[in-house]
Write a structure and sequence with these properties.
single chain; about 350 residues; mainly alpha; 14 helices
Length: about 350
């Protein structure tokens, strides 16, 4: 029994590491291909497609695990929990909107930044999560987490530095990479803000008793996400979609990306059920390192420097320290059934 449990735990760890790494690398590769191809898909439709797949996966999980394939019971449960409780459901509109905005920002940033830089920079969401937890939840950070935030800031700064070979001094990468790189950094910085606020806001709702079970909560969030993503397609790219078609530029590769991202939260939910948040942290750290290595080998859009490696190690250490500062499992479970790119665990 113990051996079987260990196989599940570390199997999920390996699966999440591969999923995180593959999703980021494939998104970056699709951005590179789209830049050189006339058959470019519309980003807003990809976000909507991911949200629809995610909703279908959660509904399938609800039916198979909780309701034993009963369509009647599923419809009745959704009616009771969503339609009959509109005031509880509407609280999730704000985080859903933020997650949709976040998805668009992440995909845009990957059109401007290499996968390795995206991975390490996005860990700054730990800082925004801590900031919003202090503001909204009045939480005090233990010393271990203050140390982790300090290490994280140092790591992010180091990854953005270049060594000037002529003068021997340092300069920021943005000075060499140009305007597109700066826009990518701005986009990923905004994504860390939406991630931090949405995660803490969800935590606040849970503590106030305004949430249902995890699966129902995820369905409520997904329904709003589909709504907001649909509005995004209509308002931002409506004319383009009408002229080109919704699935213009969709290849099997793009469908793979949408499915991998949508399934990421299900994998994390499995880790939280059979393991703990520490194991997920190992997967995140492994994914950062693996993304850096594979981005250098496969995509050829990233130059490894000693200072970048040092910065990455600081970020990996900071991520581990922050997440393991308090080992007690949170009720939040990061709401990663809904969104695998969500904020780090708060409690």
């Amino acid at each position: 029994m113990f051996r079987s449990s260990s196989v599940i735990r570390y199997g999920l760890l390996l699966l999440l590491t591969l999923q995180n790494t593959a999703t980021i690398l494939c998104l970056r590769a699709s951005m590179i291909n789209a830049a050189t191809s006339k058959n470019k898909y519309v980003v807003s439709t990809l976000v909507l497609t991911m949200e629809v797949i995610k909703l279908l996966l959660i509904l399938t999980l609800l039916m198979t695990v909780q309701l034993k394939f009963s369509i009647r019971k599923t419809v009745q449960l959704l009616y009771d929990e969503i339609v009959c409780r509109p005031f509880d459901t509407v609280h999730l509109a704000l985080p859903s909107l933020l997650y949709v905005v976040q998805d668009n920002l992440i995909i845009y940033s990957l059109s401007c930044l290499d996968a390795a830089t995206y991975q390490v920079t996005y860990q700054a969401r730990i800082v925004t999560t801590a900031l919003f937890a202090r503001i909204l939840l009045k939480q005090k950070l233990p010393v271990k987490r203050w140390i982790s935030l300090f290490l994280l800031m140092i790591g992010v700064i180091l990854t953005q530095l270049n060594v000037n070979e002529e003068s021997g001094g340092f300069s920021f990468r943005s000075q060499r990479e140009g305007t597109v790189y700066v826009f990518g950094l701005i986009a990923i910085s905004c994504a860390t803000l939406t991630s931090g606020f949405a995660g803490v806001y969800n935590e606040k709702l849970i503590k106030n008793g305004k949430q249902s079970s995890l699966l129902i909560r995820s369905i409520q969030l997904s329904l709003f996400s589909v709504l907001f993503a649909s509005l995004g397609v209509l308002m931002k790219d409506g004319s383009t979609v009408i002229n080109q078609g919704y699935f213009h530029g969709y290849s099997p590769f793009v469908w793979l990306i949408a499915t991998m991202q949508a399934s990421g939260g299900i994998i994390v939910a499995g880790i939280m059920k059979y393991a703990d948040n520490i194991l997920k942290t190992f997967a995140t750290s492994n994914s950062i390192v693996l993304s850096c290595i594979l981005s250098y080998i496969l995509l050829d859009d990233f130059n490894v420097t000693p200072i970048f490696i040092v910065g990455t190690l600081f970020i990996v250490l900071a991520t581990f320290l922050y997440t393991t500062a308090i080992e007690k499992r949170s009720l939040q479970l990061e709401l990663t059934v809904l969104h695998p790119w969500g904020s780090p665990k708060i409690l």
